[in-house]
Design goal:
Layout: H1 3-30, H2 32-43, E1 52-57, E2 63-68, E3 73-78, E4 84-89, E5 94-99, E6 105-110, E7 115-120, E8 125-131, E9 136-141, E10 147-152, E11 157-162, E12 168-173, E13 178-183, E14 189-194, E15 207-214, E16 219-227, E17 231-237, E18 244-251, E19 266-273, E20 282-285, E21 296-301, E22 307-312, E23 317-322, H3 323-332, E24 348-353, E25 358-363, E26 369-374, E27 379-384, E28 389-395, H4 404-413, H5 425-428, E29 438-439, E30 451-452, H6 474-478, H7 480-487, H8 494-505, H9 523-533, H10 549-552, E31 563-565, E32 577-579, H11 601-606, H12 622-632
Antiparallel strand pairs: 1-2, 2-3, 3-4, 5-6, 6-7, 7-8, 9-10, 10-11, 11-12, 13-14, 14-15, 15-16, 17-18, 18-19, 19-20, 21-22, 22-23, 23-24, 25-26, 26-27, 27-28, 29-30, 31-32
């Protein structure tokens, strides 16, 4: 396609997207794969990108397994030549995988199918598919081959399955957004991290945890607190088990975002723990002035414990850390240093440029090479550990042309446009969703109009944007507003903004786990629907139309796209007039209300609706409110 044709296509996409969006997203809600077909119908493009996210070597080191999220595959490569041996089809949007202790089986967590694919590594075929909880994100078998542990991102737990049959035995309560599981070197313990902060008091620092599981007994034995941390990703251990390293994101959401120029809106940090560190975990920064490390994700430690390698999604780099210097710094500086932009110079020895959105990091057993999965480049960077340079780049089979949607997604995830490369859209919208935080954004005044971060899935037909309805469309939301108040740096060119908006418009909703397969409602949901749509209260009094749930939250997305005053104005708010938020997958996105002051859906009506301005609800019993919530969860 010529450049002129691409320009016409991009501009045509934006002009025609509103008309096509209803059809596109109706399909997207029904099935993730159909969503991709719908995207093809709107843009004329075929999306066949592999999007690698994680890698594993076979136990004998002869094969390199690559988990490809974009094509729903495990690709098997020759570990010496990188020639492709086979593609193994798994479930939709796989996120994590692992081997059984004997290497005979591989387990793949399929997030949108809520399944585990079991692959026989001899035949290289799927031998079984096991159903599991809500959005399984990683899976690990214990050393004895008795239990299979699955981290479920939406149900916030770890499912324990019989490793031979797939039968679910029990659930272990974990932190919010349980996603990544790492065994200790001896396999005795499992360390689970979480991509969302745990529920907490309004406008207090976020708190997360590392959930520690005894693998033999399948019980939680510890919860390592992570103060000030909202998002935890991969953990790596040294071979001797004395050093654990967690890649994490430390938001500064309690101060106005205007402080971006003054040490950033986020601190990109590592949490160190284990015998080498001491009795308490220690947080250390990766950032330095003018060299930020946006969204650290994957971690690997050299076999001799000399180096730590950390991928950073937004900065498109791998940071190399000298472990001896790191531990000397930690022991000499026991005080908090997460926001000290001079600290990392004491232990960071290299920053290596890799591809777009680097995710999983894998260390070769001999310690000579480090492999990095570049999700949005469809490639693997192979780093020479001696020279700290990319020795080669392994391209994965797939489309080579960068489409409108692919460029838009790259723009969404890169931090290159922001001041000193600190943040990207994906900083606040983890994996194109939300972050569970509230923010003090500058345009409305410092300390004014605190806002809850709303999800960005299935946005078409929910305009206007912002809680005050001040942005009429996505080009305004993603363009001038973002450039002025968030990036404070480089403006998008017209085509880049068009591509970004096109990508955001095409983010489909994740499957709704509260809906029945056939679309029918449970008795509780049916009763809740009646409450939602009622026109008369329990005492026979007519409810004014404007005070009915179904009036403001009308339409297929649950929004009338209008603003109302529902009596939730706080002392920090400039106005009580607020945009009606969509109800799409509302069960996932706590906290609630415009400022995140309601920790649960129930609190919207039991705590923050004393005058019945936010729907007539004070006549409802606890059971009736529960029914209403059950219905809302199906939206």
């Amino acid at each position: 396609m010529t450049e002129r044709a691409q320009i016409r296509l991009r501009l045509g996409v934006v002009a025609g997207l509103a008309a096509a969006a209803a059809v596109c997203f109706a399909i997207a809600l029904a099935n993730g794969r159909a969503a991709r077909a719908a995207v093809q119908g709107v843009t004329g493009e075929v999306l066949t990108y592999s999007s690698p996210v994680e890698m594993l070597f076979s136990p004998d080191g002869a094969r390199l397994y690559v988990l490809c999220q974009g094509t729903d595959e495990v690709r098997v490569l020759d570990a010496s030549t990188y020639a492709e041996i086979k593609k193994i089809r798994v479930g939709h949007i796989p996120r994590g995988f692992s081997f059984s202790p004997d290497g005979a089986r591989m387990f793949v967590a399929n997030t949108w199918d809520d399944t585990i694919s079991v692959i026989g590594t001899k035949a290289l075929e799927v031998s079984a598919t096991w159903p599991v909880g809500a959005e399984p994100s990683n899976v690990v078998e214990d050393r004895a081959g008795k239990f299979l542990f699955v981290a479920n991102r939406i149900s916030n737990d770890v499912a324990v399955l019989d490793a031979q049959t797939g039968e679910e035995l029990k659930r272990l309560a974990a932190g919010r957004g349980a996603s990544y599981i790492t065994p200790s070197p001896d396999g005795a313990r499992l360390y689970v991290t979480h991509v969302y902060p745990n529920p907490g008091a309004h406008r207090t620092p976020p708190e997360s945890e590392i959930t520690v599981i005894d693998a033999a007994r399948a019980v939680v034995i510890d919860r390592i607190p992570l103060h000030g941390i909202a998002h935890g990703f991969h953990v790596a251990f040294s071979a001797d088990g004395r050093l654990g390293v967690l890649a994490e994101l430390h938001p500064k959401n309690l101060v106005p975002l205007a402080h971006l120029e003054h040490s950033g809106a986020f601190a990109d940090t590592l949490m160190l723990f284990g015998a080498d560190v001491g009795t308490k975990p220690v947080e250390v920064p990766l950032d330095e002035l003018e060299r930020y490390v946006a969204r650290p994700f994957g971690v690997a430690i050299a076999p001799d414990k000399s180096r730590v390698y950390v991928s950073s999604e937004g900065s498109e780099i791998v940071t190399v850390i000298d472990v001896a210097r790191l531990l000397r710094f930690v022991h000499a500086h026991p005080e908090p240093s997460a926001q000290d932009l001079s600290a990392s110079a004491n232990y960071v020895v290299a920053r290596i440029n890799v591809g777009h959105d680097p995710r999983g990091v894998l260390m070769a057993r001999d310690g000579r090479h480090v492999f990095v999965a570049n999700r949005l480049d469809d490639s693997i960077s192979v780093i020479d550990a001696q020279s700290n340079r990319v020795a080669s780049t392994v391209p994965l089979e797939g489309a080579k042309q960068i489409s409108v949607l692919r460029h838009g997604e790259q723009t969404f995830y890169t931090a290159r446009y922001s001041f000193q490369g600190q943040i990207a859209c994906a900083n606040c919208h983890i994996d194109s969703t939300f972050d569970g935080l509230t923010w003090d954004l500058e345009p409305d005044g410092f300390g004014r109009d605190i806002v809850d971060n709303r999800p960005i899935e299935d946005l078409v037909g929910t305009e206007p944007y912002k809680w005050n309805g001040g942005n009429p469309n996505l080009p305004t939301e993603c363009g001038p507003r973002t450039e002025k108040y968030f990036w404070r740096s480089e403006n998008y060119d017209d085509l880049t903004l068009t591509d970004l908006v096109t990508y955001v418009r095409h983010i489909p909703s994740r499957p709704n786990r509260w809906r029945q397969p056939g679309g029918e409602l449970t008795p509780a949901q049916d009763r809740g629907k009646a409450v939602f749509e009622r026109a008369v209260d329990k005492f026979g009094n007519a409810i004014p139309e404007a005070n009915r749930c179904s009036f403001c939250h009308s339409g297929p997305k649950g929004t009338s796209q209008k603003s109302f005053d529902v009596g939730t104005r706080k002392a920090t708010d400039n106005s009580g007039l607020l945009d009606t938020p969509q109800l799409t997958n509302i069960a996932l996105s706590s906290p609630y209300l415009h400022d995140g002051s309601a920790a649960t859906l129930e609190e919207i009506w039991t705590v923050f609706n004393p005058e019945d301005k936010h729907g007539r609800t004070n006549d409802l019993t606890k059971d009736e409110l529960n029914d209403l919530i059950e219905y809302l969860r199906t939206r």
